[in-house]
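hi support,

uploading two proteins for the ticket. first:
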Amino acid sequence: MDSKTISFVAMMGVLGSILFLISYYVGPISPGVALDFSLVGAIIAGVFGGPFIGFASGLFVGVLPGIFFGPLGTGSWLGLIGLPIGKALTGLTSGLIAKNLSIAEKRHCSLMIPVVLISYIPECLFTIAYFIYLMPLFLGGGPGLGILAFILPKAWGEVVIISFLMAALAGNIGFRDFVSKFFKAATMPESGK
């Protein structure tokens, strides 16, 4: 990774962490469940930087939520590992899909909303496995299925909001100019797409 890529991963990690902190304190839903818009950083990184950069940014983005929902919450040490992995899966998936559809090269892409929604599916499945299998296996218990009734609808609601935000960002010339300083693909929009 060159210095531009490292700085982009760091910026997306910081963006995700700041968005997490704001949403965590503004939107608590119940003990151990709060709004979390940190995925914005991982998805931006995946869509415009590719799968590896999306994965790396997702790991970085997941550290602060991992601390809050892990050692400071109900997830203990496992949350500090599990949350970064989940967010990294979303960054990786968004990068793979965006790369295959050449989304970063298109100025206006009507596929951005479904791409973001589909990108969350691996993290969603990982979250289900985390609460049903990993927490009981490694921590001897956990909130189990009950917490999934709160977390999954909340998470999908966040992802829907993030998908519309990403659609707006993808069509914003100023944002694309900013990203183009890091990645060539974002500088070459194809006309009419």
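and the second one:
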Amino acid sequence: MNFLAHLYLSGDISDIKIGNFIADGVRGKQSKTFSTQIQQGILLHRAIDTFTDAHTCVDTSIARLQSTQGRFAPVVVDIFYDHFLAKNWQTYHKQPLAEYAQEFYTFVRTYWEILPQRVREVVFYMEKQDWLYNYASIKGMTKAFEGMSKRTKFASNMLTAPQDLEKDYLLFEEDFTTFFPQLVDFSKKKLEEILQDTPQEKPQEIL
């Protein structure tokens, strides 16, 4: 899953959300330098990724892209799924997506001093281009893929990913719609499990 889904699945505990957000920028024992709950957020992120990688709906989406996206097919699917979450945001969350996104950009800045450098770079572009909100449109995703294509070290076809999505739009949306509620249930249970060592803080319901 990509940024929007990971944030949504974190609940409302601030350090858990930050840990989940920065997890891809944290390597090995570096995680031990963060607070307990940030470490727990990192664990949640990795559990979500493991569940996602093993799911048959995700495998189906990836297979549909193999001929055009090759090694980058899983990355492209992550963004496709954030698109469907953003497009249907009101189904999953009470707060308007535009407001949710702006609140997150302000919130993450309060943790600036502890963010890994590569995460700071992501935040800069995320806020500047309003990724979380703009994933809801094909145009917004196109800009995201353009940026990723420029930053990747290897040749890719990510510039054509929006066309791949439009070609099989309903099939990708069906994969997401089947998969995501299962991921939400898994994440709630996993968050409860992770937080069992800190009984004074209870997991917040994912709205």
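thanks. also noticed: The chain has a mean pLDDT of 90.
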